[in-house]
Amino acid sequence: MSRFTQRKIRTLTGLLCAMTFSMFVFSYTLREPSLYFFRSVLGLSGRTCSCQHCITHLDDENDSWFMERFNQSFHPLMSRKSSTLPDETYRWWQGLQAEESPSNLTIVLDRLFQLIPAEERYVDAHPDRCRSCSVVGNSGNLRETGYGSFIDSSDFVIRMNQAPTQGFEEDVGYKTTHHLMYPESATDLDNSTSLILIPFKTLDLEWIISALTTGDISKTYVPVKSWIKANKGKVLIYNPSFLKYIYDSWLEGNGRYPSTGFLSLMFAVHICDEVKVFGFGADQDGNWHHYWEDNKLGGAFRQTGVHDGDFEYNITLLLADKHKITLYRGG
């Protein structure tokens, strides 16, 4: 073997070692997937989706803030494959609503996944995909906006808690593909909508089993619906591990745990390519209230001490400022 060939091999080996070490360091410091690292280092311009603006596409210096928080190794939804919680996560999750003597989680989840889909969902990211999503909050700033048809033009329309559409279609749309709720905020859904349960305790998982089958559970820490209308084949479970990741990485421990609105937004950010956000924040007069309420002083929900609404909204504004989402502030 010639000396020139040996030198080329040594040079190539050294380069590969350096790139491997750098990828290792970045994976622990920025927590970004190696794909993004190599794109950044090598100057590749390949897009991560076929939308005009892709959430995960790296194109400017603003992306460092986003990638320090964004971690695709956490998936928003539970499946049978991802149903085991780390001990630290389980202890944190069980402390959110201080459930006494919780049932065995493994047994409960086994029962649950015999009733609802157990496979992984929304792991189909691809450069040829463009999944557009509208996240529709419940703010009174949606009134008299005429956003309805624009909201409904997205592939996914994500709503939350007890938000109605009937009678408000012109402003909020009529389409709902995903509806996030917890037992205390539950509402009936049509057969085409995916119910996404946000469980804050093991009893919440038992509740959804009961609400779809026997109706035995009628109370958690307050009275709840014994039965719920929903398509069992479309019921999904928000992953407590993902919930903790949002609390730690995005909210930095502010509040006791994230609000349904912020969890809905983060769900969209992690499964969609393009996200439009409506109905977040106060109206133009500074009032915090729901769009279906006539009482503009009905924003007492912000004063519960459970969620840090101001911090959550500031993160939402930052996402919009860095062009990761498009925020429509209404009136």
Automatic annotation (TrEMBL):
Membrane topology: Single-pass type II membrane protein
Chemical reaction(s) catalysed: a ganglioside GM1 (d18:1(4E)) + CMP-N-acetyl-beta-neuraminate = a ganglioside GD1a (d18:1(4E)) + CMP + H(+); ganglioside GM1 (d18:1(4E)/18:0) + CMP-N-acetyl-beta-neuraminate = ganglioside GD1a (18:1(4E)/18:0) + CMP + H(+); a ganglioside GA1 (d18:1(4E)) + CMP-N-acetyl-beta-neuraminate = a ganglioside GM1b (d18:1(4E)) + CMP + H(+); a globoside GalGb4Cer + CMP-N-acetyl-beta-neuraminate = a globoside MSGG + CMP + H(+)
Record's keyword annotation contains Nucleotide-binding: no
Single GO cellular component term: extracellular region
Pathway, per record: Glycolipid biosynthesis; Protein modification; protein glycosylation
Keyword Cell membrane: no
E.C. number(s) listed in UniProt: 2.4.3.2, 2.4.3.4
MF terms in GO: beta-D-galactosyl-(1->3)-N-acetyl-beta-D-galactosaminide alpha-2,3- sialyltransferase; beta-galactoside (CMP) alpha-2,3-sialyltransferase activity
Residues involved in substrate binding: 97, 138, 161, 221, 257, 261, 281, 290, 307
Transmembrane segments: 12-30
Compartments in which it is found: Golgi apparatus, Golgi stack membrane; Secreted
InterPro entries found in the cross-reference section: Beta-gal_alpha2-3_sialyltrans, Glyco_trans_29, GT29-like_sf, Sialyl_trans
Keywords: Disulfide bond, Glycoprotein, Glycosyltransferase, Golgi apparatus, Lipid metabolism, Membrane, Secreted, Signal-anchor, Transferase, Transmembrane, Transmembrane helix
Gene Ontology BP terms: lipid metabolic process; sialylation
Assigned protein family: Belongs to the glycosyltransferase 29 family.
PANTHER family in alphabetical order: ALPHA-2,3-SIALYLTRANSFERASE ST3GAL I ISOFORM X1, CMP-N-ACETYLNEURAMINATE-BETA-GALACTOSAMIDE-ALPHA-2,3-SIALYLTRANSFERASE 1
Subunit structure: Homodimer; disulfide-linked. Homodimer formation occurs in the endoplasmic reticulum.
Name of the protein described by the UniProt record: CMP-N-acetylneuraminate-beta-galactosamide-alpha-2,3-sialyltransferase 1
Organism name: Carassius auratus (Goldfish)
Gene encoding the protein: LOC113119128
